[in-house]
Amino acid sequence: MRLVLYNIRYGTGTGWDYHFPFPFSGCLRKTEGRFRRISDFISKLKPDLVGLVEADSGSYRQNGECQAELMAARLNAESVFACKYHHESLVSRTPLLKSQGNAVVTRLPILSSREHYLSRGVKRTLLEVEFQDFTLFLAHLSLGYGARKIQIGEVADRCRQAKKPVILAGDGNIYAGEKELRPLFRKGLFRNANDGNVPTYPSRLPALALDFVLYSEGIDMKKFRVPQVRYSDHLPLVCDFTPEGRGREALAS
């Protein structure tokens, strides 16, 4: 199976002109053309599973269309979207911001999906999607170190409750490095697919491994790579893996 994780920055692009004529003005851009190029790139990778961080669920930028649904139609797949802000927060009811979140697009049958809310930070949503052989958790963690530390502990607790092997992926904003993820590595809970800490941000001159794919016992990670493309301010992560239960079933058949 192939997983692609990509913080696509809503399809708003990257580069110095993102901050012209004023800082972060690029977040107001129309996104259809850029998102089409992102979809073309991901489609060529032939993924079974896509984790989209910073996806747009249908703001004016995308002419009211949900990016996850558009990609699902392109891949002959299905999708689940979750606003990244707590559903009771003012931010989640604010125009444009209420359309910002994370999404899973997959060709695999989805058994269930849930949204969990972390106790700290502005970005609080942890998206859980259950499949036959494993469960995927998708996160976009806080920019603030203190809030992020608490979030990582809560994510670890939530993942320990899963009944199946787990893949945990997302944008961790771990500016202090992999050491921030230690609660997730304790007692063998997870391994890092990016064991060489290949940097993923910023895409033009990558220096920090902010994005991650972690996997638990029961997942056999076959291959990992970071394509050097500049459709976003982050680089994508591509992982080929096999749930160990699926491998045993294949040998038995």
Automatic annotation (TrEMBL):
One short Pfam name that applies is: Exo_endo_phos
Question: Would the keyword Nuclease turn up in this protein's UniProt record?
Answer: yes
Citing just one GO molecular function, the answer is: endonuclease activity
Question: What superkingdom does the record give?
Answer: Bacteria
Which GO terms of type biological process are on file? Answer: GPI anchor biosynthetic process
Q: Name one GO cellular component term.
A: membrane
What residue stretches are annotated with the Endonuclease/exonuclease/phosphatase domain? 32-234
Q: Which UniProt keywords apply?
A: Endonuclease, Exonuclease, Hydrolase, Nuclease
Stored Gene3D superfamilies: Endonuclease/exonuclease/phosphatase
Please give the name of this protein: Endonuclease/exonuclease/phosphatase family metal-dependent hydrolase
